[in-house]
Amino acid sequence: MNKIIIIGGGAAGFFAAITIAEVNPKLEVIILEKGKNILQKVKISGGGRCNVTHACFDPRELVEFYPRGKRELLGPFHKFMTGDTMEWFENRGVSLKIEDDNRIFPESNSSQSIIDCFTLAAKNAGVKVLLNQNVNAVIKNENQFNIETSEGTFVADKLLIAAGSNPKIWELVKTLGHSIIEPVPSLFTFNINDKRIKEIPGISVPNATVKIVKTKLESSGPLLITHWGLSGPAVLKLSAFGARILADKNYQYNVEVNWLSSSAEVVLKILKSIKENEPKKQVILRSQFTEIPKRLWERLVLGSSILFDARWADLSNKHLQQLADQLTKCIFIANGKSTFKDEFVTSGGINLKEIDFKRFESKMHKNLFFAGEVLDIDAVTGGFNFQNAWTGGFISGNAMAEK
């Protein structure tokens, strides 16, 4: 009986293992998990609800959410993507739901539903799961692989490495001749200490435009003020697409925020109209833009050198210009980053040029496969990183199941 070993008891590893065992029941499939528990990233993802995937059903649109891996994933997504993922889980008794922001979760709102699904499917398919298997070496021996762990040595006819963003595993992969793109954080929030936002955490705007000054990096979407600075989809997308640029800057850079995603000229015209029509009203008392919450409006007004009790008639053209700039060209100094919730996503991993993405197989070694975040593939938040895991697991699993 041919033996297939999978290093990593996470999303991609389990998906591949179940696929192999269901396609070819004659194969012996073993998962080696370093820890004492499986699927830990699945367990904590989405705030414990597990953001399974994202309701984007066009491969060409879906790849746009991947700063790294966009070109390589286009073909694989034509074979297995969002709709296939939903069908896979629902066929195994997990009902899914699409939320307003197009993220997809189990109806149960619990990641345990996904873990239980994998556990049962693996058991029914005859997959062996071995815990506390700390892999120390992977050695190619003619047509087989010797995997040395803390508990013993395993011999595999085919090997899948799906251990996620694991520096130790990357070092082992180097011994097999593969090159590693140095990892840097990909999903993070901007640390900003600024009196305009310091004491108003929880305030958000629906559609801001965020830029990194002196770069081409720009992103639009909901923006959230936190205890540490700025977060929300606009910032997280920017952090993903700018992962390497921002790492090179040692996470110190200037951020320009357009709270209204409108031009300064248009906003200035509106402000002049308000001054003309409501001269006696106090500027700070009411936000003049529905997108800007009152507490943020107050901070931006004071940040424009406008006195607390000033009325619109008191404002000079310079004041109006400064307020327009605060609303559309608001500059913050970022100094550091914070991890987004429990999302430990990195940019980096196995060089994608060394992988055959028709099979997720090494171009250097036949019967050596890779899937998930061990590769230099990452995405913005919203279920996309899991979709990469499911697709890689499915395609590599089918390839390994071949006789």
Question: What would your notes on this structure say?
Answer:
By secondary structure, this protein is of the alpha+beta class. It has two domains: 3-184 and 345-400, FAD/NAD(P)-binding domain; 188-339, no CATH class. It contains 13 helices and 21 strands. The chain has helices spanning 11-23, 40-48, 59-62, 70-79, 82-91, 112-125, 167-175, 233-241, 243-248, 264-277, 294-302, 317-328, 384-400; strands at residues 3-7, 28-32, 53-54, 96-98, 103-106, 128-130, 135-141, 144-149, 152-156, 158-161, 180-185, 188-192, 204-212, 218-225, 229-231, 252-258, 330-339, 346-350, 355-356, 361-362, 368-370. The strands form six sheets. It has a six-stranded antiparallel beta barrel. Strands 6-2-1-10-21 form a five-stranded parallel sheet, covered by helices on one side. A three-stranded antiparallel sheet has the order 3-5-4. Helix 1 (11-23) runs parallel beside helix 13 (384-400). The longest helix is centred in the C-terminal third of the chain and has 17 residues, at 384-400. It is elongated and about 85 Å long. The termini are close together. 45% of the residues are buried. The mean pLDDT is 96.
